[in-house]
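input
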Amino acid sequence: MQLFYRKYGQVGDQPLLILHGLFGMSDNWVSFARRIAIEGFEVFIVDQRNHGKSPHSVNFNYLVLTDDLFDFIDEHKIENPILLGHSMGGKVAMRFTLENTHLVKRLIVVDISLKAYPQRTMHKNIINAICTVDLSKIVHRREVEEQLRPLIPQERVRQFVLKNLYRDDANGFEWRLNINGIEANLDDMFNAIEIVEKFEKPTLFIKGGASDYILLEDYGQIRQNFPHAEIVAVAGTSHWVHVDAPEIFYQLTKGFLTGLPDWYKEDTQVKNI
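output
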């Protein structure tokens, strides 16, 4: 599958691949990618299948998503990459890394663990809200937002979903998400990553301080598969740590990515666990 991607930085710099979460796309990470590229990174932000501008498929699970990443790295002849993944993208990054420990230099996982999760009401609500909108009757983008508002009352989540709305060649509206393919396979997105291999290289887990995606009980499994993992929590942030605290997130990742001895920033919002 030919995945759509955006690239920033200079050819020959250290490759960094960024994987978005469920309902996301590469566009969500452009500001971060442009900024971190200046630090000496060739940054690739990938639209995973059924998201953004990448192809749609009825097959949608962590096996095929990991295979897509392997094919992308092979196609672009990317050597010794650093992987950064948020949520669903974090699980893809973890699975790829544990299956190909010799190929990855460093790993950053944003607010997700290896465990299986119960299906979250929010994800189903987003799918239901998207499906209720009859785009054939929509003239202005604001009409979609008005219809979504009572169904997705959280402003940030609603705007996140609306980024997937675009005008097609006939000047109508379409969703970039393959919502049917995602809905049919939604349960698979909550599966665990059950691999016994260890990744012995530097790894950073960034947890949202107000998020319950990574709990104290998960630390043992994380450190079993990633013995050198640093786990930090950013106080007051949700599952979207990089959105809630972009400057802190940038400073944390920049220090870790560049290998500086003081990568852990002494900030009152950051707790090293």
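quick obs: Residues 210 and 238 are 5 Å apart (CA to CA).
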